Amino acid sequence: MRITTTVNSEPRDVDDVWEGESLLYMLRERMGLPGSKNACEQGECGSCTVYLDGVAVCACLVAAGQADGRDIVTVEGLTEGNDLHPVQQAFLDAGAVQCGFCTPGLVVATHDLLARTPQPGDSEIREYLAGNLCRCTGYEKILDAVKLAASRMASSPTKVAK
Amino acid sequence: MEFLTPTSMQEALEAKSAHPDAKPILGGTDVMVELNFDRCRPATLLDLTRIPELAEWGRDNGSIKLGAGVSYTRVIAELADQLPGLAMASRTVGSPQIRNRGTVGGNLGAASPAGDSHPALLAADAEIELRSVNGLRRLPATEFYTGVKRHAGRDDELITAVHITPPSGPQQFCKIGTRNAMVISVSAFSIALHPDRSEVRTGIGSAAPTPRRAVDAETWLAAALEANGLWESRGALPEGLAREFAGLVAAAASPIDDVRGTAAYRLHSLSVMARRSLGWVWNDYASGQEH
Ligand SMILES: Cc1cc2nc3c(=O)[nH]c(=O)nc-3n(C[C@H](O)[C@H](O)[C@H](O)COP(=O)(O)OP(=O)(O)OC[C@H]3O[C@@H](n4cnc5c(N)ncnc54)[C@H](O)[C@@H]3O)c2cc1C
Ligand code: FES
Ligand code: FES
């Protein structure tokens, strides 16, 4: 089937999509956007988190056909030109990236959290990121990264736009 | 594989009638796992996410009609004051990403004994709306669950909504799992007081082949509250009453041993949840909170 979407603000059409495949597969294998990671394909790890019409979802659990005509933003779409988004930069600066496999999903989930709750407390962060697994960092540095991003975004609010 | 994308209720019902074996898909949080792991290969997927009616909720003569495709996130954000039991259950489902996509309609379609919305729906005396090209019927939740992952919907029918009259008294939902997020319940329990009709309703999850009510426990408790004039006085519960209620709740379950827990643990945790949640709803009732 043919799928017509907007991905990271650009119109993208793909042909010959198999009806049973996931949005994650389509993004990675047909659209050349490997930022969203495939780790579990069952909604458990959050590495594939993307925005679908502005809502954070696991791309592995969306059928490609359900994304037809919809607006998708992936981790690649959060950068501003050549600049990393403050959330992305904070993950690097806080040492919240080890193997990096969980990072794209955590970045999108954090981006969504901060859009709703600009200054989240520890328990809000833990609650909101409960669907994102990391096997390397032990999460402490991830919490640091979220707080660093929150404070930087509060002091330069223009960067929040997205 | 065929992928059908009806954009109206009528089109969806016609599609289901023409393809009775079509697999409906709403949030996909159950269906896509099956597809990704090759556990099912339906000839036809019937996408129901483009039907406005399914994605809405509204009031209907004092009751709430919750479209099958309303996400848990929206139940929590928009219905917590009117349906606190269901909202509490919704908060325990998966993760934010799962709640953004998963729906009560999909939970009903999957009809897992571990589905978290079921105990709350049972305690609220919810009715499930099923539709086909030939018409609409409403089944009490008690008649909807027919077996492990089986429900009373026919092949030509779709689950279109849930009708819930907000219980007139306080409600609770509790679930036991290995961590605080992202867990399938080992056992779950929900209770609602219905003081307007001097009744109690319960729902048990993950402790029988289907979600079910603890009917004897409900009847016994309502009678005990009546006999002690407690519906009117809102006084303290007599010593031992919550414990006896908890025993009757556990007696209504018929759990199995599986990877998530033993039958004995399920019975024990159920009775603890029943005892505690009765205390909580009674506290709310005694302090005059209607829910
Ligand atoms: C990581 C993860 C965590 C989870 N955690 C929980 C949890 O804590 N508690 C819990 O209860 N569940 C949990 N689930 C299971 C799932 O999220 C829920 O069952 C959810 O309610 C399913 O809703 P959905 O809209 O995604 O359903 P879908 O996957 O779209 O559909 C589910 C089933 O219902 C059928 N169906 C869908 N719509 C209709 C309809 N209108 N008429 C008839 N049949 C229909 C489908 O064919 C399918 O069999 C979890 C799943 C994942 C992946
Ligand atoms: S790959 Fe989608 S949640 Fe793990
Ligand atoms: S950095 Fe390796 S999984 Fe998180």
What does this structure look like?
The complex is a heterodimer of chains A (about 160) and B (about 290). By secondary structure, chain A is α+β, with helices and mostly antiparallel strands. Chain A has 2 domains: about 80 residues, Ubiquitin-like (UB roll) (Roll); about 70 residues, DNA polymerase, domain 1, CATH 1.10.150.120. Chain A contains 5 helices and 5 strands. Chain A has a 5-stranded mixed beta sheet with strand order 2-1-5-3-4, covered by helices on one side. In chain A, helix 2 crosses helix 5. Chain A is globular and about 45 Å long. The relative contact order of chain A is 0.16. By secondary structure, chain B is α+β, with helices and mostly antiparallel strands. Helix content of chain B is about 35%, strand content about 20%. In chain B, strands 4-5-10-6-7 form a 5-stranded antiparallel beta sheet. A 3-stranded parallel beta sheet of chain B has the order 1-3-2, with helices on one face. In chain B, helix 3 packs across helix 4. Chain B is globular and about 60 Å long. Chain B starts with a strand and ends in a 5-residue tail after the last helix. Chains A and B meet through strand 4 of A and helix 2 and helix 5 of B. The site of one FE2/S2 (inorganic) cluster (FES) has 12 residues of chain A, from loops.
